[in-house]
Amino acid sequence: MPFASLDLDTRLQEGIRDLGFVNTRPIQSAVIPLALAWQDLIACAETGTGKTAAFVVPMLQWLLTHPHRSAEQLVSRVLVLAPTRELAVQIEDEIHGLAYHTSITSAAVYGGVEMGAQERALKAGVDIIVATPGRLMDHMRQQNADLSGVELLVLDEADRMMDMGFWPDVRRIITALPPSMPVPGAPATRTNGRQTLLFSATMPGEVVKDALEITRDAKYVQIGQRSAPAKSITHRAATVSGSHKVQWLIDHLRNPPGPVLVFVRTKIGADRLARQLQSAGIKCAALHADRSQDQRRIAVEGFKSGRYRVLVATDIAARGLDIDAIHTVINYEVPDSTDTYVHRVGRTGRSDEVGQAITLVTPEERRALDALANAVGVRLE
Predict the structure, then answer these.
(1) What share of the chain is helix, strand, coil (3-state, %, to 5)?
(2) Which residues contact 347 (CB under 8 A, 6 or more apart)?
């Protein structure tokens, strides 16, 4: 549907036009009307499907049409939890763009940087907090964050937060929210006024179980096949002995057709492979959890700008990457699960663009890779 056909505040419509959004994408068509009706949601959609705008648009509409009851209420009203610093920054960037013509304020709260600026923003009572769970818990322990006025909670990439061990912190944060808070303008049928929107790329049983516990009468939204990569991705297997993988990669990356994301299992392996590629004259950077915030920012921004044609990353570091132009994903080792495979290759073929996924496999691993591909439902060329 055209965004212009939605009954949105004119200031929000200006931000939508500024970003070049014309028609809603499937996840937005499904989520926005339900979220505007103050319905709790559990949504399954891969990164790159437009889900950020799917929750940011109704969030901003709520804030614009239901202002604070008085100017003295300096408490945050929306909390968005995300698994990684990169994703938190990307979400806040989209908030800034869509809310450009409004007075709505927001702050991104994540680790790896000094807490001072974040503390000042939290104590000033920004409207929207976008946070990673660990750093938000740090601020809560120091009584910097007042969550007593949160009316809307968004959990983005819930499966990744669970995989990365953040779920205990997520549960503690939810416990700190007001248990039952009447929200002016919310439907009278809701005894708990707070709205909860949960997004996940995959829906394993533990995510579904916890999602049902923290939402109320939630509607379920499914975009695409569960745990399946985009149909625009070509899947290939290259049988290479372990000792020849580096040389195969160097040969393949000398003239890549576009940006390439290479996945490895370990942080040490990422640094070692990046050094080997750099020695061969390939412009690349490493991305993993032991890199400093500045190093991670430089790596991601350099990859986006084209300064680095190749990014070598671990799974945890790459979670939350929101880069549309990745042409190829290479699994340097065979992924250990179907979910890992789907999440890795989901970095390419975004927005229905053509992409390719290549897995380097030794002869001994070929049977395991074939079984994984069959479970995912893809054909390996």
Answers:
(1) 45, 15, 40
(2) 47, 48, 261, 318, 321, 323, 326, 329
Helix (H, G, I), strand (E, B) or coil at 280: coil
Q: What is the pTM of this model?
A: 0.65
pLDDT (0 to 100) of residue 191 = 44
Distance between CA atoms of 179 and 164, rounded to whole angstroms? 26
pLDDT above 60: residue 120? yes
Nearest Cα neighbor of 269 from 333, 176, 327 is: 333
Catalogue all structural domains in the chain, each as residue range(s) with its CATH number.
Answer: 3-222 (3.40.50.300), 233-376 (3.40.50.300)
Residue 365 DSSP class:
G
Residue whose tokens read 């937005």: 28
Which phi and psi (to 5°) does residue 162 adopt? -70, -45
Q: What is the DSSP pairing of strand 355-361 with strand 233-239?
A: parallel
Assess whether pLDDT exceeds 60 at residue 55.
Answer: yes
* Beta-strand relationship, 195-200 and 152-155: parallel
Chain center to CA of 48: 9
**For residues 157 and 48, what is the distance between their CA atoms, to the nearest angstrom?**
12
- Per residue in 3-32, pLDDT (tens digit) is 999 999 999 999 999 999 999 999 999 999
Taking CA atoms, 270 is separated from 9, 149, 309, in Å, by 47, 43, 15
Element (H, E) at 235: strand 233-239
How many helices (H) and strands (E) the chain has is answered by: 15, 13
Indicate the residue type of 7.
D
